[in-house]
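Q: Could you write out the predicted structure for this multi-component system? I'm mainly interested in how the pieces pack against one another.
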Amino acid sequence: MMVQIDSEIIDSCRHGNTAAFRTVVQTYQPMLYSLAVKMLANQEEAKDIVQDTFIKAWQSMDSFDNRYSLSTWLYTIASRLCIDRIRRLRFSEPMPDDIAVFHDYVSDDNPQRQLESSEWVSVIKVLAGKLSNKQRLVFTLSQLEGLDSKEITEITGMDAGQIKANLSMAKKSIREQLIKLGYEKD
Amino acid sequence: MKKTEDILERLKGQMPPVPDGDLLTESIMQAINATTDNHGRIVSLWMQVIRTVSSAAAVLFIALFIGLNGHKAEPGDRTAMESETTLRTSMPVVTDKTDALKAHKEMMERRKLRQSKQTKIENLYAEI
C-alpha cells in the first residue's frame, strides 16, 4: 500500500516550499491515518499522530535519506510516535458495541466490504487489545497494511527473525481472542 | 486457525477513510506555516520563543520610557521639584531648616569679620 511521490516535489519541500509539502500531505495522509488508527484504536489520537508526523517530517526534511522512499520514512516517524502514544494510552476492553460491530463484519457475506473509520476502532479493540507494542506494530504493518518484511525491517529496525516471531505471537493471541468469542474452535 | 486467517485476509490492505480529511490537511498546513518564516525557512521552536520574549521586552521598555517621561512634577512631589531646581541653578539646595540657620550664622560671622578688618584698615590710615 506504499505510495510514491515525485523527487522534484521532495526537493521543493527541502527548499521550504509549503505548496509542495501540501501535495505530500494530501498524498500520504490516508496512509498515515490508516496506520495510526489501527495502532491506537482511537480516531482523534490517530489524527494527532498524522499531524505530528507531518510537522516532524517538515522540520527534518534535510535529514531525509534519498536511498529510502518517502513513505517508508513517514511510516518510521509515525510508528515511533504511535509507540510513544500507546505507552500513555490505556487500551480499554472491547465493549458490547465493539463486539457487535465485529460480528456484523465477520458475518457479512460480502468479502469486499470496506470498514468505516469508527468500525476499524471496534475491530482493532476486539482483535488486538491484548497485543504488546512490538506485536501490535508488526501485526499492523504486516497483516493490516500489507507491507513486506524488508519494508518492515526498514521501519521498525527489527530483523526478519524478530518480525516473524512477533507476528506469530500476535496471530496466536488474536486466535485465542477469537476462540473466546466463539469464532474459532480450540 | 482457518477462521482467523480468513478474517485477517479480509482486513488486509483496507484503508479506513479519514474523517474530515480536508480539515485535517488544512490544520496540518496551518501548523506547518506557523513554523516557517516568509522566506520558506523553518523556524525552530527556540527561535519562536526568543522572538516572542524579545518583542515583549521591547514593548515593556517603550512603555516604561513613555511612562517615566510623561511624569510631571506636582506640588508635594519633592523629588521631582528638587531635581528641577538642581537642574536650573546647578547649586546645592538647602533643604533643611537647621542647615539654613547654620549657613546664615556663618554668613553673618564672615560679614562681621570683614567689617572689623575694614575698621582696622581705616584706623591705620587715620593714624598715618
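A: Regarding packing and overall arrangement: Chain B has five helices and no strands.
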